[in-house]
Amino acid sequence: MIYDVVVIGGGPSGLMASIAAGESGANVLLIDKGNKLGRKLAISGGGRCNVTNRLPIDELIKHIPGNGRFLYSAFSVFNNEDIISYFEGLGIKLKEEDHGRMFPVSNKAQSVVDALISELHRLRVTIRTNTAVKRVNYENNTVKEVVLQNGEAIQTKSVVIAVGGKSVPHTGSTGDGYQWAKDAGHKITELYPTEVPITSSEHFIKTKTLQGLSLRNVGLSVLNKKGKPVITHQMDMIFTHFGISGPAALRCSQYVVKELKKQKSNTVQMSLDLFPSQNEEDIFQQLVRTTKEEPKKAIKNVLKGFVSERYLLFLLEQAGIDSQALAGQLQHEKLREFARLCKRFEFAVNGTLSLEKAFVTGGGVSVKEIHPKEMSSKFMQGLYFCGEILDIHGYTGGYNITSALVTGRLAGSNAGEFATSLA
Ligand SMILES: Cc1cc2nc3c(=O)[nH]c(=O)nc-3n(C[C@H](O)[C@H](O)[C@H](O)COP(=O)(O)OP(=O)(O)OC[C@H]3O[C@@H](n4cnc5c(N)ncnc54)[C@H](O)[C@@H]3O)c2cc1C
């Protein structure tokens, strides 16, 4: 038998592609090498599944720094609001949280996965799990067959490659699809970790001085050679035993990778602004007023509450201020230095955790060789790509899953229409 569409990979992009292909009336086979579908989707958003994000389209695109603009045409067909309506139509009510993030009201990622699987059953999509694909064969610039690890060849009119990137490989995403894309003539742009914790060998990191300390709503920047910010993200962060993590650090991570390369250096400077909405002079004046009010108390007690205690003691030391010194006896110069450090504490970072530990893979199948309205290959008839295998990556916050669902929808419906239009 010849399938109309074979979808390889049952992550969000492959699940949506199979559904869209099924809706077009195509005869669809979905193959996944894992024992379950949607394994990464089930652990996303802390196990609650951050299905999409409700920000306006232009904002969505800004939050997809890896080729987000490529998605403009796809969003004109199926976008975040369509994703929300789609899931509500399947009986999965969604709620909005901070920064536009959308989650199922049930707080259970599995409910999202199960709803998609029910749709596959309703549309009579054939599902084969525990089935690893080895390669895709092409003939005369057209897709011919999908060959499994066990040697079985499956004939098909079209193939949707939805096998994800290379991050968190225990969920099944082991980068198998890049070779199949190369075999079809596609370029794979350099792969690198994004949305990944940042490492540092600064003394205060090595001595674990700040390990476990979280800072809320700080401004975290990656600096260029001249000390100017390449990017600043205002969010929460946490110090770890190897460096920094948390939303602000994850968002900065890809810029660390790029700056290290650009500067051809082993380290890059980052800067931490504890009070992004105040300027240094205001902070200094506030310090002067506070120290005048209680001149006979130790500075560490006077500034209690101004900055969280561990960071306060750390910054006092960095500013060369004895934490026991009496507030009234401190020179203004010292207070100025403390205010400066509140606004701009600089430290060196030397990289990130590995691609395997990253939330998302940067790089992938070059979008220049993909038709943006169809997700089809510009080289091979009947070949489609969707999801993280593409050179598209967003910040965490629902942007990657949005990209996977949107590109999956397009790839599946176009593959279905293409295959069913053939004689
Ligand atoms: C812990 C974690 C949390 C995350 N949280 C968020 C978040 O909050 N917001 C957000 O937007 N993104 C988040 N992401 C990223 C998001 O989950 C991924 O971008 C998304 O799952 C990619 O979807 P995909 O369909 O392209 O690939 P994947 O979900 O990776 O699925 C690929 C599938 O292909 C299958 N496969 C691979 N090779 C083969 C083969 N040879 N044969 C057969 N099958 C194969 C795999 O088994 C897998 O099921 C998170 C990622 C992780 C790891």
From TrEMBL:
SUPFAM superfamilies: FAD/NAD(P)-binding domain, HI0933 insert domain-like
Keyword ATP-binding: no
Keyword annotations from UniProtKB, A to Z: FAD, Flavoprotein
Boundaries of every RsdA/BaiN/AoA(So)-like insert domain copy: 192-360
Family matches, as InterPro entries: BaiN-like, BaiN-like_dom_sf, FAD/NAD-bd_sf, RsdA/BaiN/AoA(So)-like_dom, RsdA/BaiN/AoA(So)_Rossmann
Domain RsdA/BaiN/AoA(So)-like Rossmann fold-like: 4-413
Cofactor(s) required for function per UniProt: FAD
NCBIfam families reported for this sequence: aminoacetone oxidase family FAD-binding enzyme
Protein name per the record: Rossmann fold flavoprotein
Organism: Priestia aryabhattai
